[in-house]
Amino acid sequence: MYEQLAGASTIGERIRRLLNAQGMTLSELSRRSGIAKGYLWELVQGPEATVARMKPSAETLYAVGTVLGASVGDLLGRTIPTPTDTQRWPEGLREYVEDAQVPPDEARMLAQINARGRTPTTPDEWKFLHGTILMVTQGKARG
Amino acid sequence: MATHEPAVRALCEHHQELYPSALITRLCQELLAHQSTEAGPTPLRVLGSVRGIRDVRYAVLASGSECSGLLIPQDGGYVVVLDEHDSPGRNHRSLGHEIVHSYFREVHPGPPGAQEERLCEIGATELTMPADRVAALMSSQPEVTFEFIAEFASELNVSKGAAARRLVDLSQTPVCYIVATLRRTKQEEEEDRGSPTLRVASWACSQSWPERRPYLGLSIEPDSLIGQAFKARDSRVGRGDPAIHHRCGTFGIEAAGYEFIWRGTPMCQVAVLLRA
C-alpha cells in the first residue's frame, strides 16, 4: 500500500493506482462502493481543476477506500510516520522477541502497539497478543 | 511547560499547544468536522479512516492481556482490533480511544504512558459524545435523569455510565452522579481484614454542584433509600439526606440498583443521581 501510493499527487491518481494494482474496473468500484460511476470517473480521470472543486466527503472516500483496502488518510496522501525506538521496548517484549526469535519487522510492530486497558508485561502475555495479531492481520478474525 | 510524558510533550510541541487536554479536545473537534453528524452515533470508522485506520477487526483480547482495544501499525497505516466479548458501546468507545492514540504515534514511538492513556480517554469522550451534540440534546432536556441518560446512551451508542458522567459534567444544573458497590476500604484491602460495605466506587458532578470534596470511598447507610435500591436491585426516587457518611444535605435522589456480568463475573452496583 505504502509503496503503491508513493509519489501520487492527487486523490484520483491514488485511486487509479489502487485500481490497477488490484485489477479492478471503475464499474466494479462503483458497484461495490455504492458511489456513482460518473462521479468516480470525474474523480479519477477528470481535469485537476475539476477534481479540486469536487472535494469528496470523508464518507465518500471511506466507501471507496473500504473497497480498495485503503484508509481515507491513504487516499488523501497523508503519510503516517511511525517512529521506532528500540531502547524503549518493554522488558517482557524484549524477552519474548529474543526467546521466540520474532522477525524484526513483527517485533517493531509489537513495540508500537497501543493497548486500551492493561498492556502486556510478561513474555507469555506478549506471545498471546502476537498470536492474536497474526490471526487478525492474516484475515482469520471477524472483520 | 509542565512535566509531561515524552509523547505528550512531543505532541504539544508539534501543535504548539501548552495544555495537553485542550489540545486533544481541539484535535478531536477538528476530526469530527470531517463528518458532522446530527443523529445517531459518531461515525468513528469514517473518522478513524481519516486518521489512517484501514480496518477494524474483532478478536478475543481479554483472556491474555485484559485489554479491550489495540492500535496496530501496518505498512504506513493502522489496523484496530477490538475485544469481541465487549459490548457494542464499549467497542465504540475503545475505537475512539485508539483513534486518539494515532495522534501520539505520529510524533513519538510507543509504548504509551499513563498520561497518554488519560488523554485518550478524554479524546474518546469528545469523539463518542461531542460537546455540541450534548449541548443540542440538553437544550430540550436540561435536567439529568436516568431516563434521559438511557435515551442519550442509546442515541450515541455509549454505555449508560459514560453517558451519565458526560451529561453531569456538562450540565448547567447542580447534579452529582455516584456509583456504589460492596467493597472494603483501601486500608482494609491492604491488611486483608473487615467485610465489604456499600461504598462509593466512582463519582462525577457538575460545575455548580455545591459540595467540592470527593465522595470516593465514602460508605452509604444500608437502610437508606440508596441502600434499599442496591439491596432490592430496583429503582427508587425520593428527597432527603442520601445517608452518605461524612456528607450531609437534602437532595433529590434517584437510585437504581442492578446486576451485570463483567468478564464472566456477576457484579452488583447502585447508580445514584443527586440533585440539589
Unreliable stretches of chain A: none
- How many domains, in number, for the residues of chain B? 2
- Helical stretch count of chain A? 10
Measured as a percent range, the helix fraction of chain B is: 40-55%
CATH architect. name of the largest domain in chain A: Orthogonal Bundle
Q: Give the helices and strands of chain B as they follow along the chain.
A: HHHEHEEHHHHHEHEHEEE
Q: How many strand units of chain A?
A: 1
Q: What do we call the CATH topology of the largest domain in chain A?
A: 434 Repressor (Amino-terminal Domain)
Largest interface: A-B, 48 and 55 residues
Largest sheet of chain A: none
Structural class of chain A: mainly alpha
| Radius of gyration of chain B, taken over Cα atoms and rounded to an integer in Å | 20 Å
Beta-strand content estimate of chain A: under 5%
Run of helices and strands of chain A: HHHHHHHHHEH
Explain how this protein is built.
The complex is a heterodimer of chains A (about 140) and B (about 280). Chain A contains 10 helices and 1 strand. Chain A has about 140 residues and is mainly α. Chain A folds into 2 domains: about 1-75, lambda repressor-like DNA-binding domains (434 Repressor (Amino-terminal Domain)), CATH 1.10.260.40; about 85-135. Chain A is elongated. The two termini of chain A are about 20 Å apart. The mean pLDDT of chain A is about 85. Chain B has about 280 residues and is α+β, with helices and mostly antiparallel strands. Chain B has helices spanning about 5-15, 20-30, 45-50, 60-65, 90-105, 115-130, 130-140, 145-155, 160-170, 185-190, 225-230; strands at about 55-60, 65-75, 75-85, 175-185, 195-205, 235-240, 250-260, 265-275. In chain B, β2 (about 65-75) and β3 form a beta hairpin. Chain B is globular. Chains A and B meet through α6, α7, β1 and α10 of A and α3, β1, α4, β2 and β3 of B.
